[in-house]
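User: Last request for today: this protein with iron/sulfur cluster, please.
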Amino acid sequence: MNAAGAELSAPILDIQRFSLHDGPGIRTTIFFKGCNLRCAWCQNPESQDARPVIGFYAQRCLHCFVCETVCAEHAIRHEDERIGQRQCMRCGTCTEACPATALKLMGEFLSPEALLGRVLVDKPYYDSSGGGVTLSGGEPMLYPDFVVRFLKLAQAEGLHCCLETAGRFDFARCSPALERCDLIYFDIKIFDPESFTTNIGGGRRTIFSNARMLALEGFPVEFRMPVIAGYTDSAANVNALIGFLRDFGCERVHLLRYHNMGEAKIDVIQGDQPKLGIQANAEASLTAVARQLRQAGCEVFGATND
Ligand code: SF4
Ligand code: SF4
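Assistant: Here's the final one, the structure of the complex with iron/sulfur cluster:
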């Protein structure tokens, strides 16, 4: 229950077992649904909307019209292969009726206790590897009360708890959750204000202020930069990152490799995010950014030696 006496729950998109790259040891990564940024290169577009969404895998569809028949809301218009997101009540009836698994309900509301139950099935692996659980998204900090409750439960079971955040949150409101994290991965993307607004959206000042506060107040924070060719990889942006981190004595950066698998998911959720077509430059871009950081004396993780 929260302070108002209501049951706590949060929308969960996916629970990924046996993750090896989201913190130490073997982990379960929990992807929350809902995000307060809109990065042009988003690799998890199905996590942006906090509501569950019906995914449509067109290549599996048998054109049997069963989904259209069972939908009480008349949300499916088969002739143009669209699901009307405004009419759809996310009931899941069509996904259960589809004989071809061409429809999938993405996202479910879980309580902290139910989520912990899902995570604990792999406790022997966490215990033997020094692993645990990583909260990712979407943006977990959209649900600070839920996160506090979940982390209390997880830590009572002895799990190492890690948070991945894009940093747009109210620091005071989220402090109880942040203070419970054993490790915080904080993503920094673009410094230039105009480019930030165009390619990410709002919240620039909040994000940089939160990054600084976490570092200065001694939180166990590691900074990461997703390397997106043509968006975050310019020499000026990397220089700005180096200067920003040096300001509070940090010289460690984790680089995140871009992949374009998210672009197929845009079609599945019938989203309107443009496809960037930048995969071909991803590896060269990662190498160049890693080189620039190392030449400036930074310790770099997530990129092979250049
Ligand atoms: S989830 Fe329910 S309301 Fe939405 S399209 Fe399917 S049957 Fe219709
Ligand atoms: S029920 Fe499934 S297979 Fe049949 S038309 Fe709908 S999406 Fe296609």
